[in-house]
Every structure is written in structure tokens, then in C-alpha cells.
Amino acid sequence: MNDPNCIFCKIVRGEIPAKKIHDDAEVIAFHDIRPQAPVHFLVIPKAHVATLYDAGPEHVAALGKMLAIAGRLAREAGAAEGFRTIINTGPVGHQEVYHVHMHVLGGPDPLGPMLSRKR
Ligand code: 5GP
Ligand code: ZN
């Protein structure tokens, strides 16, 4: 449930500060420390799940809630005209933190293209 060395578990436990915008029994949301858009926050399950490869039926409620609250939180954070959700998985997906997290990125101005092609 909880990984003592995981940075996002430490945020869940309150051992590392974060600018939280949501906290309930299953998920929390907080602003990304290195925002890549005017609105950029992360929504994570409280339970430690390293990647989407590791997700199973026991995580359905938390993963569903992450999507279900994204719109309201995005609007409240200032992204009223749209936003993008991203979950990076594994080395191919450039996942840096191995605790599942959904990025929510928004304007006000339109974001760039979804993927930039590697040269
Ligand atoms: P990934 O590449 O794994 O999808 O993205 C990890 C994200 O977590 C990055 O956008 C990074 O800025 C963010 N991040 C890493 N460490 C921390 C932290 O300690 N606090 C917060 N708020 N965000 C973090
Ligand atoms: Zn964790």
C-alpha cells in the first residue's frame, strides 16, 4: 500500500510538502513542482502502484476517480477551455516517478502538439 522510499507516497503521508488541491480517501492532487504549462497538476492514487502495468481490479475505484475529478480540478485551477491528461508508463513513456500519476495540463493558451517526434 505504501512504499517508504517512494516520493509520492511521502507526499501522501505528508512527509514532503506539496501544494495540494484535492485530498480524499483514495486520491490526492497537487501542483507539479516543475510545471510545463500554466496549469499543471498531478492526480495520484493514495495506494502505491508503481506503473499502469501493475494496476489491477483493486485499483479501479482510485483510477476511475482520478478521471472523474480531473475536469472540476482543472476548471478550478484556471483551465476552463480544455486540458490534457497524460499518464507516462515505463522507460518508453519517460516515466520518472514510479508511483502512478496522471498529469493534467492546461492553458489558457492551447498546448503544443501531443507528441514531438524524436530526431
Ligand atoms: P513523469 O515523467 O514520471 O510522468 O513525471 C513526474 C512528474 O513529477 C514531473 O513532472 C515532476 O516535475 C514531478 N515531480 C517530481 N518530484 C516531485 C515532487 O517532489 N513534488 C511535486 N509536486 N512534483 C514532483
Ligand atoms: Zn508510492
Write structural notes for this entry.
The chain is α+β, with helices and mostly antiparallel strands. The protein contains 2 helices and 5 strands; from the N terminus they run αβββαββ. Strands 1-2-3-5-4 form a 5-stranded antiparallel beta sheet, with helices on one face. Strand 2 and strand 3 form a beta hairpin. The longest helix has 18 residues, at 60-77. It is globular and about 40 Å long. The model has no long low-confidence stretch (mean pLDDT 95). The structure holds guanosine-5'-monophosphate and zinc ion (ZN). Guanosine-5'-monophosphate (5GP) binds at residues 7, 16, 18, 30-34, 88, 94-97. Zinc ion (ZN) binds at residues 3, 6, 8-9, 48, 99.
* Low-pLDDT residue spans: none
Which structural class fits the helix and strand makeup?
alpha+beta
**How many β-strand stretches?**
5
Largest sheet: 5 strands, antiparallel
Helix-strand topology string: HEEEHEE
Beta content: 15-25%
Q: If strands are numbered along the chain, what order do they take across the biggest sheet?
A: 1-2-3-5-4
Query: How far is the N terminus from the C terminus?
Result: 40 Å
Shape: globular
The portion of residues assigned to helices is 10-25%
Rounded to an integer, what's the Rg over CA atoms?
Answer: 14 Å
The small molecules bound here are: guanosine-5'-monophosphate, zinc ion
Output mean pLDDT.
Answer: 95
Number of helices: 2
Short synopsis of the structure:
The protein has 2 helices and 5 strands; from the N terminus they run αβββαββ.
